Amino acid sequence: MDKRRSYIYERTYMEYQNRKREDEAESYWKDILGEDIIQHLKEKTYYQIYDNLSTDKYCCNITEDIKLSEIEELYLNILKYTENINYKQFGDMLFYPFYDRLLECSLKFLELKCDNINIYLLNKQVIQKSYLEQIIGRMTQVSTRTLIQELNICKRFGELEGRNPEEEYQFYLENQLGRVDYYYELMDAYPVLFRILFECIAMSVDNYLFMLRSLENDKTDIELRLCKKMSFNKILKIKCGISDFHRKGKSVFILEFDNMQKVLFKPRSLKCDEEYQKFITWLGYNCDLKMKIYKTIDREEYGWCEYVYYEPCDSESGIINYYKRLGVLIFSNYLLQVYDIHYENIIAQGEYPIIIDLETIMANYSTFEIGSARELANKKLWDSVLHEGMLPKYIWAKDGKSGINLSGIAGTEGQEFPVKMPILKNVKRSDMYIDFQKPVTQTKRNFPMLGEEKIGGQDYIAEIVEGFNAAYNVALMKKAETISKLEGFRNICVRYLARDTQQYASILQASYHPDYLQDGKNRELLLCALYRSTNMDSTIEDAIIKAEIKDLLNGDIPYFSYNTEKRDLYDSQGKVIIKNYFKTTSFSNTKKKVMSLNEQDKKEQILYIILSMAMLPKEEKMLRPNKSFSINEFIRKSKNGVEDLKRSVFAKVNEIEIQISTEAIYTDKEKDIAWIGISLDGTDEYRWNVTPLSNNLYDGLAGISLFLNAFDSVKQGDNNKICTMLNQTLFQYTNSRLDGNNYDHKNESNGAFSGDSSLMYLYELLYAITKRQVFLEYAEKQYMILKENIEYDKNYDLLYGNAGVVLILLNMFKITGDKKYLYSAIEAGNNIINNSIKMETGLGWIPRNLTHPLAGFSHGNSGIAYALLKLYSYTNDISIYKVVQKAIEFENTLYNAKTNNWLDMRVFNGKRVDTIADPVHWCHGAAGILLSRIKMLEYAHGTLQEIIEEDITKAANKVLESGFTGVQCLCHGDIGNLDILAQYAIKFQNNELLQQVKAALKSLVDSTSKGNWNLGLMLNIQNIGFMLGTSGIGYNLLRFYTDYQLPSILSVEI
After folding, report:
1. What is the pLDDT of residue 63?
2. How much is the pLDDT for 638?
3. How many whole angstroms separate alpha carbon 340 and alpha carbon 501?
4. 484-536 pLDDT per residue, tens
5. 80, 286, 692, 986: least buried by Cβ within 10 Å?
6. Helix (H) or strand (E) run with residue 858 in it
7. 3-state secondary structure of 62
8. Could you tell me the sign of the dihedral formed by the alpha carbons of 912, 914, 916, 917, in that order?
9. Is residue 623 pLDDT above 50, yes or no?
10. How far is CA 995 from CA 635, 982, 989, 1037, in A?
11. What's the CA gap between 458 and 456, in Å, rounded?
């Protein structure tokens, strides 16, 4: 046996070094793994190979050597003595001649091991067909890249004949793969490949043998309990590999018998499934909801269960009951800490939602060392209904596109994964190659159906909440009985997910590259990439990664488990790899959770349900939340005069401050603070995620800090505890950024409202408002971070890009007079100008992830032109002024006289926004354009001044006529537009309009009940973020209260 097929852990190296060759190998592996991992491997005696990267001076002891030798001997005999083997039924697969002798070897080995099993002998043809289909799938996954490489080598050296790539491919099959000696050449070139193939045979045979012996032993029980007491004599169909492979090739089987019944064989205990179904039956009974369960047979090491069919509902009432029952399941999962309930793990059987995979139950954790408020917030979410995977959550690619929702309640087919996977191009041609594309989700059975229509849950939130509330109340009122129902969960083994399955699948696929199939050490070293983003100093993480690597070397998805009454972590073979890995047992955690149930927690979990379901409305509804109306209609709703308006406004601000402070999360040390809220994610779609708030100004901690510090200043308070913790949190963040932690300049988004630049703006504002020197010091610190990002900006706009940065730097120059800020502002301005695009008329900019220049303040030409014109006012650089003129020229080509508004060229789900809505907001449309033109008027002259004055008239009329919708936030709501109109009135000394703004504000304040602001979200959800929520509303109400003495954030001023 070729010793090169051995892995590092099977080798013992002699003392030998060729330093020159070792240096070359080290350089190669540093490029693959990174210097930090290489340094780690140097320090670990387990990887003593590191000092022998190029030597072949070693001996080895390959795991399960006897079985592999047996298969190899069988294969070599087939090569030597058997001719004209042709598995014609599989002739359509790629490189099929390569597999003929391997499949012959596989079948002979199967027969050798199963010749004494009656059920195999009675169903040989069906079993063999299933076995071959399964093993072909595994073998092709392992071999295809190597065979493509060999095909390409033959083509490169002119060894293929044919008139076209198709004929050359056929020539390769017949004249290369058809030669026995070519197999020997491949075995010599890729010894690791053949080890993996032989292991596939060994593990697949063991898997089938295990299932068939279990079937023979359990036949009577299966007939009685899973087949409605109907006997069977033959197996009609077998399907294997419908789940991931774990624990040396074990996987789930589906069997169909001649009694027309289907059953599943699962190579694990089904005790947790049985106990879960008992629990939900009891819970449903107490909620007056019958819960449907599936029958199981548990045999400790394995189990059988009936097949769950996907069926439609009979009526609308069935859909209603389905979602009520789903609410009960969401509570059950919350209480029993069930997770990983994605869209493949739930089936809608009529009006009954059925969870079909419950190996991740009674979740436990070891990694939550609560050192910060943010960690506490993350743990709070981990312990919530959001963790179970049932409720919507979007995962995004780095570019903000390709958001995917895999949740049990809403995961759909046709979604594009945010990661690329290998696919074949030019199939069955000599120029065949591997490309990488994003796969899409397939059709699943997680939606209830009414007839042929799948019915989503966004219109049944009340029913989901009703079921959840009822189930929660049962457990709350019957805590002792609930705990008694947990007894069956004692002393059972459940799965532990150390990391995402997709990550394992990606690196496993990479390990099948031919470069890593020539020597076992190379394949194992590649898998050391798992050390990335881990604490390599941790002996615990090191032990987990070593176990992961061994499983991956077997072709398995790594598998870990724990006993619900023990604290140890087990590997895939049931061995303890880490003693006392968990602080407490999962069974004791669950009991504590029952005892901690309370009304406040119930309200919190229901809020999370509603927040997560708010991700699901169609984008059109989000873009057009309400019919617009004029300021006069607004005023008509006002009940009284404006005499007591300031008192009313102050009261509302105080309510907002109390609400935000009440929701704060902080540790006992009170050194930092966090909030859980909703954040708007994505670029091609609007999607909300429930998450600990980030640090930015738009919807993060910076916005909350601005509001609370401003209110404290207006009240002439003493910098209350919440403000102190909040400021300290942001200071800690700035300091960590200066230390270079987790920092990637090229992928940063920096503008006036996002990224690190928005923190610099916050510190400027807090210095301007409070006059506290510490804020100016931190603004200077934040500048050291911001200046490194300028050259990498690809957004250019005010919200996310250098237009916002220009304004922030000019603010700092105004405060300090230090010209370094002006020079950096010029650098940012030049970056904007150098990335302009010449349009048919004027200039535009295409921000990252968009396809067309936009009008408007936040992402469009208005914001960019305003920033550049303000820069011109400091530099008198006429070239900047000319760019501004061209920017306005282009923007005004998007003006639509029919609507008296500027077109919104954004595209969502294939539709341009202005075809479905007419936004008149700060972010998009006439309101933001009005603000930009007001601010630009100060610096414009000549023709540009005339254009701006004309635009101001148009934009102001549009805002007055239809700038209000009832949504109250700053970004796209009435508070923002009223502030813009107030700035317009003050600029042009229009006291009549200013009184109208006050009357409209009075109407808005009077119509808003406590904690019930209309933020344009489903079910009137509240959001504490600045531009989209109550902290921004509070700040702008303070601006009115102080007669607009506080800085205008909407125009990025101090």
Report:
1. 64
2. 64
3. 11
4. 999 999 999 999 999 988 899 999 999 999 999 999 999 999 999 999 888 88
5. 80
6. none
7. coil
8. positive
9. no
10. 10, 9, 11, 15
11. 6
| The model's pTM | 0.86
> Could you tell me if 813 and 819 are in contact, meaning their C-beta atoms sit under 8 angstroms apart?
yes
Give me 905's structure tokens: 């060229």
DSSP structure class, residue 489: G
Span 678-684, average pLDDT: 61
| Distant-in-sequence, close-in-space partners of 435: CB < 8 Å, separation ≥ 6 | 422, 423, 424, 425
Q: Which structure tokens are listed for 296?
A: 């199981």
The Cα–Cα gap between 925 and 462 comes to 35
Cβ atoms of 638 and 1004 within 8 Å: the answer is no
The string of DSSP letters for 218-262 reads HHHHHHHHTSTT-----EEEEEE-SS--BTTTB--EEEEETTS-E
Q: 314 to each of 226, 319, 492, 1030, how far by Cα in Å?
A: 25, 9, 38, 44
Closest CA to 930 of 855, 991, 880, 992: 855
CA torsion through residues 200, 202, 205, 210, sign: negative
Q: List CB contacts of 308: < 8 A, sequence separation 6 or more.
A: 294, 347, 349, 354, 356
Token readout for 464 is 């989901």
Residue reference for tokens 């990174």: 34
SS3 for 263? strand
CB proximity list for 972: less than 8 A, separation 6 or greater:
919, 921, 922, 923, 924, 1016
3-state helix, strand, coil split of the chain in percent (to 5) is 55, 10, 35
Rounded to an integer, what distance in angstroms lies between the CA atom of residue 918 and that of residue 899? 8
**In the structure encoding, which two tokens stand for residue 704, read together?**
């909350």
Residue type, 194: F
Whether the Cβ atoms of residue 322 and residue 313 lie closer than 8 Å to each other: yes
- As a three-state string, the secondary structure of 620-635 is HHHHCCCCCECHHHHH
In this structure, what are the phi and psi dihedrals at residue 510, rounded to the nearest 5 degrees?
A: -60, -35
Start-to-end Cα distance in the chain? 76
Residue 161 amino acid letter? E
Instruction: Quick: pLDDT tens for 296-344.
Output: 999 999 999 999 999 999 999 999 999 999 999 999 999 999 998 988 8
d(CA 731, CA 728): 5
**Alpha-carbon Rg for the chain in angstroms:** 33
**Residue 529: helix, strand or coil by DSSP?**
helix
Per residue in 751-762, pLDDT (tens digit) is: 999 999 999 999
Say how far apart CA 88 and CA 504 lie, in whole Å: 34
Q: Could you give the angle at the alpha carbon of 715 between the alpha carbons of 712 and 719, nearest 5°?
A: 30
Query: Mean pLDDT lowest for which of 709-723, 725-739, 875-889?
Result: 709-723
Q: Which of 120, 153, 386 is nearest to 235 (CA)?
A: 120
CA atoms within 13 A on the CB side of 716: 1
Sign of CA dihedral 344, 350, 351, 352: negative
* Residue 508: exposure state from Cβ atoms within 10 A (0-12, 13-18, ≥19): buried
CB 889 within 8 A of CB 842: yes
How far is the C-alpha of 208 from the C-alpha of 131, rounded, in Å?
8
d(CA 455, CA 431): 45
Torsion of CA 1025, 1028, 1030, 1036, to 10 degrees: 110
Range 401-412 burial, b when 16+ CB lie within 10 A, else e = ebbbbbbbbbbb
